[in-house]
Amino acid sequence: MPDNLEATAKYYDLQTMRFDDVPFYLEQLPSPEARVLELGCGTGRVLISLAAQCRRIVGVDMSETMLAQCQEKLQAAGLAENKARVLLGDIADLNLGETFDYIIAPFRVMQLLITDAALDGLFRTIDRHLAPGGTCILNAYRPFLPHERMVKEWASDKEILDYATQVDGGRITRHHACRRIQADPLVTFPEFIFRRYEGDRLVEETVEPLSMRCFYAEEFTALIEGHDFRITQCWGGYFGETYGEGPELVVAFTKES
Questions:
Q1: pLDDT tens across 189-240, in order?
Q2: Count of domains forming the chain
Q3: Residues 199, 89: one domain?
Q4: Which residues share a beta bridge with 87?
Q5: Domain limit, last residue, from 180, 196, 212
Q6: Can you tell me the distance from the alpha carbon of 66 to that of 56, in angstroms, rounded to the nearest whole number?
Q7: Which of 26, 168, 206, 226 is least enclosed by beta carbons within 10 angstroms?
Q8: Is 39 helix (H, G, I), strand (E, B) or coil?
Q9: Do residue 179 and residue 134 come from a single domain?
């Protein structure tokens, strides 16, 4: 399977450093003895921090390029494989043959699964790997407009600047544009455009197209409960926001007893 993130993986840490959810996932860690599974671990932004605080962590991702960067970070941190390891795999079709006390999929990973079949596969993965009494946390961003207005108003060819970062010899910018949207189920098709400059000269432009399924607050909890899990807590973000009012949908759940 081709690595769709190969071209933009080198920019990944620049964009996720603006998403400060790591303290939240550390706070929710059940105990220092917890066995942790991160679905969609990427370059290890969350995994590296959790590895220092838990008994053992396994990260899974579909991008070989991202996993290579994560592996480099693990080696630099001196983390042995029996403490932290990463695997190439599909989070919608995964069977590691073991269970975990804490499962997470940070940075809106589940939104990349846009079909009902893929989402069903994700929940089978969670059910298969979540230990009795264990906790899983999923998140998605909360659409900022009602469904009808999202469909009518969100798609645009206009590029919006997300950030500009100074690097050696120049700067890197990221813009985004959501050029298309699907109504049912609600799926956006954003493009992230990375441009690297030396002085004022553009030397590289890389475009990352994505497909992201969107959920409203009640829809998100209903999806989880509809797969026979019991919700234990909900947040609207990582800084105490009320569920359904903050920028994120963050839900913790466990297996039905």
A1: 999 999 999 998 999 999 999 999 999 999 999 999 999 999 999 999 999 8
A2: 2
A3: no
A4: 60
A5: 212
A6: 20
A7: 168
A8: strand
A9: no
